[in-house]
Description:
CATH class of the largest domain: Alpha Beta
Low-confidence stretches: 254-268
Strand order of the largest sheet: 1-2-3-4-5-7-6
Distance between the termini: 32 Å
Number of strands: 14
Strand content: 25-35%
CATH architecture of the largest domain: 3-Layer(aba) Sandwich
Radius of gyration: 20 Å
Amino acid sequence: MTVREARPEDCQQVSRLMGLLIDEIYARESGDVRRALKANFTEGALKELCADEHAVLYVAETESGIAAFLYGWLFHYVFTMYWIFSLKEFRGRGVVKQLMDRLESDLLTKGAYKIEMYAYAEHNRFLDFSSKLGFRKGVLIEKSLFGFKIQNIFKYIAEPDPAKIEKKIKIVGEAGQGVKLLSFTLAQILSQLGNEVSLSLNYDASVRGGNISADLIYSDRPIENPLIDEADVLIKFNRTREWFPAKSLVIDESICEEEALSCSIRDRHGTLYGFEDVAVTVFGSKVFINMIALGRILRYIGINILLLNITDILPRKSLEKNLEAVKYGFNFRDDV
Length: 336
């Protein structure tokens, strides 16, 4: 048995195993639920996901093909494990432990300190097995997007550096762009997932255009300072040339020409995404900019929208369109 990082040509086999996993774990749920889950992990979707710098996919391979896989997302020294699966004929042979050992070894070299997972709460056999791998139970989410319970499990693989524990998101925009709603909704989501959350809003009424900024910090430990001097993620909606230091991602609409209908967002890795253009052309109004942005942020920081019943958090007005805008920003697929 060989454990290695996956290659693009592995996605077809892994997608097939994903389907087997979903059918097995979610056997109690409806066919619609299973179809929606599978739609997000087709061969094409997997190739797209794995092209992202945060995605991690390992496979355990035999002479006859891939027997097991592990997929997840590494953001700011915390790895969120989405799926881990082995074909039935290879269970009890230590394959999952080999995958986990390889993962932990690689994570430690990258300075990561924690692995967590949001598991189907009815899957008691897996939850019992995960405790043998050193995982502990965290928050129980009573209602996911599909209505069933989700159990958080976590494992510390290293003593965290205090500088790594807090994740800092800075959101900058103008009045009318929904910065307040976006930041409050994101804070609620992060809180429901068991994080300590701090949110500070700053209104600069003296500046023409009515600028507003939000400092959002989340952590699994108490937050000492609610203000951000350097962000991990910067979301910048307005077109001013003002800058704010950010480590890993800068989203900035100021790169556009003034006469452009809308701006694309560019991060330091060259990613382009146009919130305003999508809001207008797909959803018919700029008011959905913030919900599209919310979906993009959740994907970037590794929070799967399948985990939460977002309809309980989103504004009641235009609820269905807001939900669709979040899904669009996340790139959630409803069906195969």
